[in-house]
Amino acid sequence: LFCRETGSLTRLITSLKENVFGSPTELLKLSVPSLVYALQNNMAFVALSNLDAAVYQVTYQLKIPCTALCTVLMLNRTLSKLQWFSVFMLCGGVTLVQWKPAQATKVQVEQNPWLGFGAIAVAVLCSGFAGVYFEKVLKSSDTSLWVRNIQMYLSGIVMTLFGVYMSDGAQVLEKGFFYGYTYYVWFVIFLASVGGLYTSVVVKYTDNIMKGFSAAAAIVLSTVASVILFGLQITVTFSLGALLVCISIYLYGLPRQDTTKIQPSETKSSKERLATV
After folding, report:
1. How do residues 25-39 score in pLDDT, each as one tens digit?
2. Distance (Å, rounded) from C-alpha 47 to C-alpha 37?
3. CA–CA distance, 131 with 225 (Å, rounded to integer)
4. CA angle (56 as vertex; 50, 59 as ends), nearest 5
5. CA angle, 270 as apex, 148 and 143 as ends, to 5°?
6. Quick one: pLDDT at residue 95?
């Protein structure tokens, strides 16, 4: 895609040298969301290990209003009362869609709820901050979207490789890095890559809040597809959650105010915008 945008392989190489390898400051700037996302994933794992699945599902959805709050504070935007209401309705809808009743198990796992709640709080804050930070970087300059993706993912690859060799270094050295990779694994990696590029496009041309709404709609559609393909049973909680998701998407789209551009900071302070809500 980047090669197609530049027009030739020579321009592609020149652009990579200038914007990636020749701009350590920009590379460092995009390493911030990579590091925060890595922290978020680890904190989510800690939270899931120390909380019941139902509690985890409910509390982790707080990342949706947290993203809206970061959007207001970091990008100097304002949200109407109806938009805030639709954000919290979406949070409840996604919770119901993903709700699964707790099942009894004979395996007793020692859990620390305080550690779990602390980890989920960090994960929620990381999710909101990293997404809005990346959006601010994307929209604050004319640098190509694909260059920004390369800058961020290079940092992510370095951090992930460090984590792999810290946790499973002996096995990787013994069996090789790609041991166990099947065609299905490569296909999942391909889908994840396409999903990441699609997410950056959504953030570039809309915003992180809209990304949350589209992710919720994707959850509903994937469940419906599972019903058609695999005969999954639809529950009352899923039906109610899907209804709330659809209504929240409709309500959020009602206001005509443009929230996809960064507004000048001198219009209103963050405290004044929050006070009006």
Report:
1. 878 888 898 889 888
2. 15
3. 28
4. 125
5. 15
6. 85
Give the Å distances, CA to CA, from 92 to 59, 86, 95, 220.
10, 10, 5, 13
Residue with tokens 């005969």: 231
Structure tokens at 24: 């350590």
End-to-end CA distance of the chain: 42
Phi, psi values for residue 263, rounded to 5°: -90, 155
Q: Which residues contact 213 (CB under 8 A, 6 or more apart)?
A: 90, 248, 249, 252
| Alpha carbon of residue 264 to chain centroid | 26
Amino acid at 232: L
- Give the dihedral of Cα atoms 249, 255, 257, 262; nearest 10 deg: -30
What separation in angstroms does the CA of 226 have from each of 161, 219, 229, 246?
Answer: 34, 11, 5, 19
Question: Are the CB atoms for 151 and 200 separated by under 8 Å?
Answer: no
CB count within 10 Å of CB 246 equals 15
Q: Can you say whether the dihedral through the CA atoms of 267, 273, 275, 277 is positive or negative? A: positive
H-helix segments, 176-269: 183-205, 208-230, 236-253
Closest CA to 262 of 197, 201, 203, 198: 203
How does 177-200 read in b/e, with b if 16+ C-beta sit within 10 Å?
A: eeeeeeeeeeeeeeeeeeeeeebb
Q: What is the sign, positive or negative, of the torsion defined by CA atoms of 48, 49, 51, 54?
A: positive
The string of DSSP letters for 131-166 reads HHHHHHHHHTS---HHHHHHHHHHHHHHHHHHHHHH
pLDDT tens across 206-246, in order? 888 888 888 888 888 887 887 788 777 778 888 898 899 88
Quick one: CA torsion of 253, 256, 260, 266, rounded to 10 degrees?
Answer: -140
What pLDDT score does 2 carry?
A: 58
